[in-house]
Write a structure and sequence with these properties.
Layout: H1 10-13, H2 42-79, H3 85-105, H4 132-139, H5 152-157, H6 196-200, E1 210-212, E2 217-218
Antiparallel strand pairs: 1-2
């Protein structure tokens, strides 16, 4: 995928007034005004491009070296009659998951949500019915500190910001919360354009946040002494 987000110009986001971000949408869909996160600085862009270059080189070396080793070993084993070609092919299938984990640990490739769903077409009846306003004073919008991958729809819209050093994971601010989470109210500043995962996530089934959901008892291990998320949470956990 060659499409990337274009960060907002700092001169356009100066001042306290909201900035309208235009999203490419079908003709019948109303353009939605959203408040953008703080603009990306030039030095952050430079560091991101440098990271991308280093990651590409690292990935290339990893792929080339691994391919050479695997091919040489496989051909040698088949040639000596230790295994058959069919056995070798079957073992390659079993190794896919392990290699994928190795690539993730090495920082190779990019993150992209595999599930394809139009976030604007999700039926209201499948959305979780949770009184977030009543719970935010207790949970501090802990779900908005989670790390997850954007969908192609999110990327093409150019509204949801992603981590320039870890494409296309959602961008987390220095406070540990999503870049679009208001620091004061913990409300979403791009609510109408929020990703599908934010719309469908159900915290009632996530014991990382609630020890007792019904009685609003927070997991005591969730926050540290300074009120920050103790451990970064990866994606959604279902009970």
């Amino acid at each position: 995928m060659t499409d990337t987000l274009v960060p907002p110009d700092s001169s356009e986001t100066a001042g306290p007034s909201p900035v309208e971000a235009t999203m490419p949408v079908p003709p019948q869909r109303r353009l939605l005004p959203v408040v953008t996160a703080p603009p990306v600085e030039d030095n952050e862009l430079f560091d991101a491009f440098r990271t991308a270059t280093e990651r590409t080189r690292s990935t290339g070396r990893l792929v080339f070296g691994t391919s050479v080793n695997v091919r040489a070993l496989g051909e040698l084993l088949v040639e000596k009659g230790i295994i058959t070609q069919e056995e070798f092919d079957a073992s390659r299938v079993d190794a896919v998951e392990a290699v994928q984990e190795q690539f993730v640990d090495a920082g190779a490739g990019v993150k992209l949500a595999a599930d394809v769903v139009d976030k604007y077409e999700i039926p209201p009846e499948v959305l979780p019915q949770i009184d977030c306003a009543a719970r935010i004073p207790v949970c501090k919008a802990a779900c908005c500190s989670m790390r997850w991958a954007l969908t192609e729809q999110d990327i093409m819209e150019g509204v949801v910001q992603w981590d320039l050093h870890d494409p296309y994971a959602n961008r987390i601010g220095s406070d540990g919360w999503c870049a679009h989470c208001d620091a004061g109210t913990k409300g979403c500043t791009i609510y109408e354009a929020r990703p599908a995962v934010c719309r469908t996530y159900d915290c009632s089934k996530d014991d990382r946040i609630w020890s007792d959901f019904e009685n609003m008892v927070i997991n005591p291990e969730l926050f540290d002494e300074d009120g920050r998320i103790r451990k970064p949470m990866q994606g959604e956990q279902r009970g």
